Amino acid sequence: MDFDLSDEQRMLAESARRYVRERCSLEDKRALSRTADGFSRERWADFAAMGWLALPVPEAQGGLGGGPADMALLMEELGRGLVNEPLVDSNLLCGALLAHPRAQGRAAALLEGMVAGKTIATLAHMEGGDRSEYEAHVTTTARRSDNGWRLAGGKHLVRHGHGASCWLVTARVDGSDSLALFAVDRQAVGVALNSHLTIDGTRSADACLNDVAVDADALLLAPERVTTALEDALDRALLAHCAAAIGSMEAVMAMTAEYLKTRVQYGQPLARFQALQHRIAEMFVETDQARAALYRAIAAQEAGEPRARARVTSAAKWLISRAGLFVAGQGIQLHGGIGTTEECAVGHHYKAMVSLDKRLGDADFHLLRSSELFNPIAA
Fold first, then answer.
1. Strand-strand pairing, 191-197 and 203-215
2. What are phi and psi of 30, to 5 degrees?
3. Could you tell me where the beta strands, DSSP code E, fall in 235-284?
């Protein structure tokens, strides 16, 4: 893997860093968390204008064809600024499903709308009792009708469910064990949702599908293709969330180091106390190890071998989750009581790490997944 950035990648990272610094303050994040959507439509339009929404979409489908390294560079900067817009859930995760070579029906039209910023999609896969999208036990059903399909069931923790205009819903077809993927408009007749705030300031929804009628072209992926396409898309999204965590960890280190330099105790700055220097050093080591795990996962995803991609991505999630909680926790400790207040960003970074730890499977699940996929002979 080449660790040198291209000119385009440097421009991407620099523009994202500048945008986050100028347009994404902590005050804005706190205010947006109190809105119905939980994110800014104005920022979403900016993302479209800058090409970020097109970045993860293949060129053949009208996107920019950015790879895992490109998305990681962008997400690191967005994670540094605690940006809540659903770029990963919509254009990366759902975009990967819609861009699948065997996608059909409304897939191309939805993808075009997502690249332009006119459509926001989200995956509705988990159900009550499920721990993650990887472990979902789908009971939602899809029955054929004269004009298309009728969907019935419930979905749990639909990320940005209220703000999304379209849900990609998994359902079992005609009473079988086979999963298919359908497009459902959020405002369709028979859709009921209960939106709620999550710990990191984003919004999710629990949804009930009461015999929702959809047209025939709402079928996006036929049963025999959903499982592998879903796992690939989830791994891509997981890697992007890990990259955002790296940016968050580096932001915590920077603000903590600055606080220790300016906070005076016993006549001298806290940064002069050796015990606190050791804590900062430990935070740096954890962040550096996390970045190495991210790079390894990027290389595995670019190589394209599914088993190695899954194993290494899960290993990265486990390590980065643990490191992120440690770094953000130490940041709060070194800030003292002020670190727990709503006005201090370090506490919000800790909440983001708690959310990451449970997002798309917790650290324990991914530790087990990476070990089960590990073959010492093949490795």
1. antiparallel
2. -65, -40
3. 264-265, 268-269
- Angle, alpha carbons 19-355-260 (nearest 5°): 65
What average pLDDT does the segment 13-20 reach? 95
Rounded CA separation 67/56 (Å):
7
Q: What confidence score (pLDDT) does residue 73 get? A: 95
Residue position matching structure tokens 């991210």:
294
Which CATH number covers residue 216?
2.40.110.10
pLDDT tens per residue, range 342-360: 888 999 999 999 999 999 9
Tokens representing residue 99 in the block:
């861009």
Sign of CA dihedral 334, 338, 342, 343: negative
Q: Which residues, including other chains, have CB under 8 Å from residue 54's CB and lie 6 or more apart?
A: 48, 62, 63, 64, 91, 115
Structure tokens at 69: 């390294």
- 210 bridge partner residues: none
Parent domain of 33: 7-116
Copy the structure tokens of residue 358: 């449970």
d(CA 352, CA 43): 20
Of residues 117, 96, 360, 130, the one with CA closest to residue 229 = 96
- Dist CA 232 CA 226 (whole Å): 10
Residues 212 and 262 in one domain: no
3 φ, ψ (degrees, to nearest 5): -90, -5
**0.90 surpassed by pTM:** yes
Do 255 and 157 share a structural domain? no
| Structural domain contains residue 378 | no
Which tens digit of pLDDT belongs to each residue from 164-199? 999 999 999 987 888 999 999 998 999 999 999 999
At 210 the three-state DSSP class reads: strand
Length of the chain: 379
Residue 334's alpha-carbon distances to 252, 262, 278, 330, 349, in angstroms, are 11, 12, 12, 6, 14
Short-list 167, 310, 303, 157, CA closest to 232: 310
Q: In the 8-state DSSP scheme, what is residue 378?
A: T
Same domain, 260 and 341: yes
Question: Distance (Å, rounded) from C-alpha 207 to C-alpha 155?
Answer: 5
Q: Which tens digits make up the pLDDT trace of 92-125?
A: 999 999 999 999 999 999 999 999 999 999 999 9
